[in-house]
Design brief:
This protein is an alpha/beta fold. The chain has a single domain, classed as Rossmann fold (3-Layer(aba) Sandwich). It is built from ten helices and ten strands. The strands form two sheets. It has an eight-stranded mixed β-sheet, sandwiched between helices. Helix 1 crosses helix 10 and helix 5 packs across helix 6. 42% of the residues are buried.
Amino acid sequence: MDGGYRDLFVSAQDGLRVYARDYGPVVSSATPVVCLPGLARNSSDFHELALSLSQDATPRRVICVDYRGRGRSEWDQDWRNYDVRIEVNDILQILTVAGIENAVFVGTSRGGLIIMALGAVRPTLLRGAVLNDVGPVIEAKGLIRIRGYIGKLPKPRNFREAGQILKQMSDTQFPANTEEQWERLAKGTWQEKDGELVLSYDPALLRTLEALDLETPLPDLWPFFEGLKNIPVMVLRGANSDLLSATTLEEMQKRHPSLSAVTVPDQGHAPELEGALIETVGEFVRAAEQAVTSKA
């Protein structure tokens, strides 16, 4: 396995080719983990976490998904298909091919919304959920900020310059980030192609955000969150987040009394899954696994 993972390519129901990184043993007694990235992010965001989880005391399988139009998945000719409902079906197809019947899910931003949707369409799939800076109420302020840069970033000459672009754009959200961290984030935003850096996602993703009317209330997602009440849930919130408010997190704790909440200092939307957070997530995964075992 080059880089610690295998390449997994799967044909979606409409024939589009989607990709996932497949870490760890294919067969293991440990509960697998499925990682779902943010709107314009991809599987590379979970590399360090996936390496750690796949090398647990009992090595476990970890699947990290690239949604259609992101990372190494094919771009869709119709931007309207960059839709959570279709992405849910793509993920179910990937898990079917991988032979995974249930797992602990880790979802950043859009990934958390997809977890809640999966809980509605196939509740037996979820053994536990980590929602990284996302909840049933999405703050319009955060969506407006994201809409301001998706598909509109200037073209950098190298990854160092790319990191500087991200720093200038998000320094107030991540004031403690090092140059190395910004550059690492940049490597999940751009990729090298034919000697130049190009975006690692289809710029047409912007159209999905342009279609939103942010002057009207966003859909009520509390019923979807309620669908997670029977499984262990952990929520990570960046202290500087403009997408998940502290008020929403408090309400989530009220509605799911056993919910574990972690506020990450000096981080915005969304906290990077690195350093101490890797062990925090690892402990949650192992606890969720024990909870299922004790019920059996």
